[in-house]
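[job 4417] fold queue: 2 targets
>>> target A
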Amino acid sequence: MRNLRQVRLPNLQRVNVFFGNNGSGKTSLLEAIHILGLARSFRGKASRTLVTHGAAELTVFGAVDVPGATLPLGVKRTVSGDVQIKVAGRVVSTVAELAGYLPLQTITADSFDLLAGAPLVRRQYLDWGVFHVEHRFIGEWRRFQRCLKQRNMLLRRGNIISSQEVSVWTRDLALAGNAISRHRKAYFDRLVPRFDAILTELAPDLGAVELVYRQGWDRHLSYEDALESTRQADVEQGYTHCGPQRADIKFTHGGYPAADTLSRGQQKLVVCSLKLAQGQLMGELGRGPCTYLIDDLPSELDGEHNRLICARLAAMDAQVFITCVDPQDIMAVWPATVPPDAAQGADARPQTTALAMFHVEHGSVVRCE
């Protein structure tokens, strides 16, 4: 894919560092792992920009450890946009099934959109967490999307719509929408204390960054009543105005939007805290570790803040892939030992950290011994 031809990465470690000049292919490696977990790039580019120029397709193979076994995964994408996903040799039809085997967290330049981007980005962030800790969520989400699509199709028919038909889909939409909002709010309430604690650890002088969950309709109304109150506007404009599809998370600092008041470095610390909080919560709920893809960690942060983030990552039961230009930027801040997990008991000893170093140049990858 892109400027990578045939790359093999055997014997990966918990912490894997890819270093090299800009444009050498480091980010493409992270994209390949992202494709293996979600069948798409975190850059959101079309398939034709991912596939190496002159080739017809790209294929990513890998294996993940699951309880009691090693599970092969494979994803193929063609320049025309076709996608084929295989799990243990079996073709699967949904990205959701693939995502369940390889939970991924990304920290990239695009991650700043969590604070300054569109509400969709923040809904996706929230739904990632809910999906991985609440098995009922994906079914309710699909049900809601189906009801929303059908209701909007009816609304676009204007004066010829049947009031009874709209009422049926409105009822089902309300049921699914309420379920989604309950799942989101329960997850959000668990997430915020972890975020607060991690941000305080990473940036003790920053002060509080407040998070507020907005469900997508007037909080004083039930969803059924909110749909009824906007029904006339829905009919006139041909779409459903309120609901979980309008949900958002608001970030404020000192009473003002965090994206407007925080520096780029401070924003990166907030983003890192959000991503680390999700990984921590997953582990606490027994849903297993997630894999972190971190593109150019040293940028916009000084050595001390990089050290704090690396210490937090090292203490988590997570596999980490980091890119940088100079390997010393990571080697200098990654802890030499990791404190034992409290669950291991008082006699447990710190674990020695081993960094697997890979030099990336002109699309080739060489492991440094």
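>>> target B
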Amino acid sequence: MPLLQVEKMSHEFGGLRAVNSYNLEIEAGQIRGLIGPNGAGKTTIFNLITGIYKPTEGDIILDGKKITGLQPHRIAAFGIGRTFQNLQLWRHMTVVEHVKLARYSRVGYGLIGAFFGTMKRQKQEADIEEMAHNLLKMVGIDHLSDQVVTNLPYGDQRRVEMARALSMEPKILLLDEPTAGMNPEELIQMMEIIRRVHKELGMAIFLIEHRLKVVMDLCQMIQTLNFGHVIAEGTPEEIQNNPKVIDAYLGRESLV
């Protein structure tokens, strides 16, 4: 059974069908990409999978468990982490606080531990601190752990968001345009981070990207979405040479 399976998922906004009978299978450890023109429905699919929207039709199954229609925090607890197309960071918090806060949904010391500082709390707090710094090191910003997040360059803020998503130990990581707004050097660095996360954590990754070189270099399989429909699915080579994909992107030059 695939790690993540989406079956005939559709969604409507006021009578407009934004996603139409969408199917997806992602295996454990696989990197998959989702591409398509602006307005194709890509982020809507992420929002449906993560519970921000509820599908009008269809089912979403994670590791054999049906998660369709669950609240976002429950879906995250089941094992789906994500980043957002537009940064969703807390302006007053430090880098390490972002990563630690996301982890607190998994603590087990309860109210008594919180109020009285039990040994169990001390142990878990130490573990959370170590985990946060390890993740920040993985994404290359452990030296910035005490900085307020708004003081960081945009590219580093993107790394904070990824470390925060990883702190939940997801089974699959959804990345919504992880290189958006980055300069060429930052883009190369982010691609290396994604490769490192995949290699060291063995994690399945599902990513949306407009920069097609990123998708072609990183992904094993790619879907192309247009007006809520999947018009093509295959390997990077197959997608690059698919006439429907070329037409959707208005020219072959945009696929290289």
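[job 4417] complete. Note on B: DSSP finds ten helices and ten strands in the chain.
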